[in-house]
From TrEMBL, chain A:
Residues 27-224 form the Transketolase N-terminal domain. It comes from Streptomyces flavofungini. This is Transketolase. The keyword Ubl conjugation does not apply. The keyword Transmembrane helix does not apply. Its cofactor is thiamine diphosphate. Belongs to the transketolase family. Keywords: Thiamine pyrophosphate. InterPro entries: THDP-binding, Transketolase_N.
Automatic annotation (TrEMBL), chain B:
This is Transketolase. It holds the Pfam family Transket_pyr. InterPro entries: PDH/Transketolase, THDP-binding, Transketo_C/PFOR_II, Transketolase-like_Pyr-bd. Residues 2-168 form the Transketolase-like pyrimidine-binding domain. PANTHER family: PYRUVATE DEHYDROGENASE E1 COMPONENT.
């Protein structure tokens, strides 16, 4: 729970906040694939608040998968980074909230995204920069989609960050099985091969997410693969 | 004479000592010059391996964390290969940095087309708000490197080349310099082209301007050189021919004018050999330039 000047929001408020953008409070799994992981991060893990949104030693969250940002905007609104009354303008010409977020326009957004494969390299640079400034405490988190990992730029970042020992770097992979060509377990295996600490969890289980997010990973960057319903089965139970 | 690139690591090593905001990012290329700096500043001299998307993306990430990144590799791998990273990770994220390239248009002719980047400045022209420095001498390179690193959070490109003039000129990181004055036209020589241009225009009644900062384009300087009447302007650039023609046209929109844009041709030569052979093949040697300039001025 958090308190803003107007209202206190909980996880239960998020569908209504998303509804302000979509005109519908019922959302299929595709629209909410990131919702639980985002909520647990912002509610329990990230040490960043609207008042400290520019503090040098804040934790950073970089949304790399910028498609479908309604859940992200809903969480930022619930946590007081942006006014709830912005949500209704979603996508309009004079709205700061586009279908891909722009850090220049959205309070609390660390990066603008939309083109896939940019967040992880930016997160690597951010982690390097914080270390160079002697800020060894803040965590850097970046959220990518499983299909986004098709982009080769991610693999440049993954292959570098492990051997470089960037232990303040964390990647959250939302795995809704949307990559056309993938092997079971392939995501965690690739990170592990590059020297990362890796945990795969149920992306709807808040306690499991929290445990994965806070698992120790001394000397190594950390990836959490959060598995959610497969994209092609949106709205239906997953069969396997 | 040493090369511009020979100055890069020593200058950056001093800037790393002087300014805790400065960080250097490399992708293997050029790392040998930074051995001492890597020991002194292990967190601010970063080699990411042969990974140019990461090179630029991580450079921009350093800027997001409050540093002044200086990102270096050959122009083809710095500007062309990770171009979207330049567009989005610096431009769209609204952060600054200094990109320092080597190898230029054909610094290593034996290396062939894969290591030639005549289109780098034209590509950056599709983006907003990049300062582009094209030094013509190692001393100028040193001055413009310092100028670029010290330019706040500006986005700056510094184009180093082994092509160079024998003597340095004073450079201020902004304006064109009047080297010669005449009445029949204005020839703008960019960076390493100055010596060939001066030889080509020997005895011609033309003004020669020397440009080492080409973006923003010194429109005021060109207008002043042209005077109030009709203008004939020749641009001689060490990268793609015509790269600055639109900028010159815009500068002269109020006066009748003609612009001849000379530079490196688009056509792939598929030749190796020596630098001077490529200069000649693109018509940028003094003899070829004189014929083309005289033909244009009539």
């Amino acid at each position: 729970m958090t308190t803003t000047t107007e209202h206190t929001f909980t996880y239960a408020d998020l569908p209504r906040l998303m509804g302000l953008m979509t005109g519908d409070e019922k959302h299929g799994p595709a629209a909410t694939s990131t919702l639980d992981a985002l909520w647990v991060l912002y509610d329990r893990v990230l040490r960043v608040t609207p008042a400290r949104a520019d503090a040098p030693d804040r934790d950073r969250f970089l949304l790399s998968k910028g498609h479908g940002p309604m859940a992200y905007y809903a969480v930022l609104a619930a946590k007081g980074f942006l006014p709830v009354d912005w949500l209704e303008g979603f996508g309009a010409y004079d709205s700061p909230l586009g279908h891909h977020p722009d850090r220049v326009l959205v309070p609390g957004a660390e990066i603008g995204s939309g083109s896939l494969g940019h967040g992880l390299p930016l997160a690597v640079g951010t982690a390097l920069g914080l270390r160079a400034r002697g800020l060894t405490d803040p965590s850097v988190w970046v959220l990518v989609g499983d299909a986004e990992l098709d982009e080769g730029s991610n693999h440049e970042a993954i292959a570098y960050a492990g051997p470089a020992g960037l232990d303040r770097l964390h990647t959250l992979v939302i795995d809704n099985a949307s990559a056309s060509f993938a092997r079971p377990g392939g995501i965690a295996a690739r990170f592990e091969a590059a020297g990362w600490s890796a945990v795969t969890v149920d992306g709807r289980d808040h306690e499991a997410l929290y445990a994965a997010f806070t698992a120790p990973h001394a000397g190594r960057p950390h990836v959490v693969v959060a598995r959610v319903e497969a994209k092609e089965f949106a709205g239906e139970p997953k069969s396997a | 004479m040493d090369t511009m690139r020979d100055r890069f690591a020593p200058v950056m090593t001093r800037l790393l000592d002087e300014d805790p905001r400065v960080a250097v990012v490399l992708a293997e290329i050029g790392k040998d010059g930074f051995k001492e700096a890597m020991r002194a500043h292990p967190d601010r001299v970063i080699n990411v391996g042969i990974r140019e998307q990461l090179l630029v993306g991580a450079g921009a990430g350093l800027a997001l964390a409050g540093l002044r990144p200086v990102v270096h590799t050959f122009a083809s791998f710095l500007v062309e290969r990770p171009f979207e990273q330049i567009k989005l990770d610096f431009g769209h994220q609204d952060v600054g940095g200094v990109l320092v390239s080597a190898a230029a248009s054909f610094d290593w002719p034996e290396g062939g087309f894969t290591h030639m980047s005549p289109g780098d400045v034209a590509l950056l022209d599709t983006l907003d708000d990049w300062t582009v420095h094209v030094p013509g001498h190692p001393d100028e390179a040193e001055a413009l490197l310092r100028h670029g690193v010290g330019a706040g959070d500006d986005k700056v490109y510094v184009r180093l080349s082994v092509q160079a003039n024998a003597s340095p000129m004073p450079v201020d990181g902004a304006r064109f310099l009047t080297v010669r004055e005449g009445r029949r036209g204005v020839v703008v020589a960019v960076g390493p082209m100055l010596e060939q241009v001066l030889a080509a225009t020997e005895g011609l009644d033309v003004t020669v301007l020397y440009a080492t900062t080409v973006r923003p384009f010194d429109a005021v300087g060109l207008r002043r050189a042209v005077g109030g009447g009709a203008a004939d302007v020749v641009l001689v650039e060490p990268y793609l021919a015509g790269t600055s023609t639109a900028a010159a046209n815009d500068a002269l929109v109020e006066v009748p004018h003609r612009v001849l844009g000379l530079g490196v041709g688009r056509r792939e030569l598929r030749r190796y050999g020596r630098l001077d052979e490529h200069v000649r093949a693109h018509g940028l040697d003094a003899g070829s330039l004189r014929g083309r300039i005289e033909g244009f001025l009539g």
